[in-house]
Amino acid sequence: MKDQKCAYCVEGEFLAPFGLKICELDNALVYLFKEQSHKGRCIVATKSHVPDITQLSDEERNGYFADMAKVVAAIQKAFSPDKVNIGAYGDTAGHTHFHLVPKYKDGFEWTQVFAMNPEKVFLSDEEYDEVISKIKANL
């Protein structure tokens, strides 16, 4: 199911303000979060438009979390963070998704909950392409 008002379902101009599509996996959609205070921060969304993981079948949920683990591993290989935080808030988004946030000791927000959008670090198109390439190369 797709929702024509959802950034993850429609992509394009709805997604552009905050994300760039990296790829589509078997059970998940993967996006680079444009705000890169945490180098390699990604969003992993379910392929179908569901507001809560309880609305996925066991097979869909297990596949989604397996894909999420692949993305975490790719981030770890590409950027060597000390930890990848995983957060799901979704108060205003109707599409299940998780933020994968690489954290670095002595780096921004280490030992703190990551900010939803600190609006500190935005990259050039070439830099976004480089980050995306590194993640894709490790998927």
What does this structure look like?
The protein has 139 residues and is α+β, with helices and mostly antiparallel strands. The protein contains four helices and five strands; from the N terminus they run ααβββαββα. A hairpin with a 3-residue loop joins strand 1 and strand 2 (28-33). The relative contact order is 0.21. The model has no long low-confidence stretch (mean pLDDT 94).
Helix and strand content put the structural class at alpha+beta
CA-CA gap between termini: 26 Å
Overall geometry: globular
Sheet with most strands: strand arrangement: 1-2-3-5-4
**Main β-sheet, in a few words?**
5 strands, antiparallel
**Overall helicity:** 25-40%
Radius of gyration: 14 Å
The average pLDDT score comes to 94
Number of strands: 5
H/E topology pattern = HHEEEHEEH
Work out the strand percent: 15-25%
Please outline the helices and strands.
Blueprint: H1 7-10, H2 12-15, E1 19-24, E2 28-33, E3 42-46, H3 58-79, E4 83-87, E5 97-103, H4 125-137
Antiparallel strand pairs: 1-2, 2-3, 3-5, 4-5
Helix pairs in contact: 3-4
Main attributes?
21% strand, HIT family protein, five-stranded antiparallel β-sheet, alpha+beta, 139 residues, 4 helices, globular
What is the compact description of this entry?
Helix content is 31%, strand content 21%. The chain has 139 residues and is of the alpha+beta class. It has a five-stranded antiparallel sheet, covered by helices on one side.
